[in-house]
Amino acid sequence: MPNKSDAMLKLDNQLCFALYSTSLAMTRLYKPLLDELGLTYPQYLAMLVLWEKDGLMVSELGERLYLDSGTLTPLLKRLESSGLISRIRAVEDERRVHITLTAAGRKLKARAARIPGCILSASQCSIPELIALTQQVQALRQQLLA
Questions:
Q1: Is the pLDDT assigned to residue 107 strictly greater than 70?
Q2: 41 is in which domain, residue-wise?
Q3: What does the pLDDT look like over 36-87, one tens digit per residue?
Q4: Please, is 41 exposed, middle or buried when counting C-beta atoms within 10 Å of its C-beta (0-12, 13-18, 19+)?
Q5: What's the structural domain count of the chain?
Q6: Minimal CA–CA distance to 104: which of 50, 35, 42, 40?
Q7: What is the rounded CA–CA span in Å between residue 50 and residue 61?
Q8: Are residues 74 and 108 in the same domain?
Q9: ∠ CA 36-38-40, rounded to 5°
Q10: Cβ contacts of residue 116 below 8 Å, gap of 6+?
């Protein structure tokens, strides 16, 4: 006879697995769309932040993406070698690096504008449903980080 702890240990009852497997499915969905732009998913996330606010410091971008500099630096080097961003050391403190979009990086935003619609269509959710789900997941993230 199954007990309560057996049910709690079933894979399909795990929130962590639901989030993980959904993240994998979402990344798979994004891949062909991002391949057309020449971006990986983490690079796309960095570009989203820079399209919102250009000229951030590496540390600010890392905070926004929840990434450490060891993860972020190689990603930024690839974006720079692709001609999408420039990294400029601050004159007053060479440890501080500003990231600015190049003309090609700003131009890429127009091509990326179709991606959210593709994701919306694939989700088969309404815009209010996706907004609510996003807010729930963001609230969960904040509670887990607290």
A1: yes
A2: 23-112
A3: 999 999 999 999 999 999 999 999 999 999 999 889 999 999 999 999 999 9
A4: middle
A5: 2
A6: 50
A7: 8
A8: yes
A9: 105
A10: none
Residues 91 and 102 both lie in one domain: yes
Looking at residue 85, its amino acid is: I
Structure-token match 């960095």, residue found: 46
Torsion angles phi and psi, residue 57, rounded to 5: -80, 155
Q: Which among 96, 107, 63 is positioned nearest to 87, based on CA atoms?
A: 96
Secondary structure (3-state) at 89: strand
Residue in the structure block whose two tokens are 């993860």: 71
CA-closest candidate to residue 79, choices 59, 99, 109: 99
Position 3 confidence tier, pLDDT thresholds 50, 70, 90: confident
In a domain, 8, yes or no: no
- 59's CB contacts (< 8 A; 6+ apart) are 69, 96
Neighbours of 101 (CB within 10 A): 19
Distances (CA, A) of 94 to 35, 64, 88, 139: 34, 21, 9, 36
How does pLDDT run across 6-35, given as a tens digit for each residue? 888 899 999 999 999 999 999 999 999 999
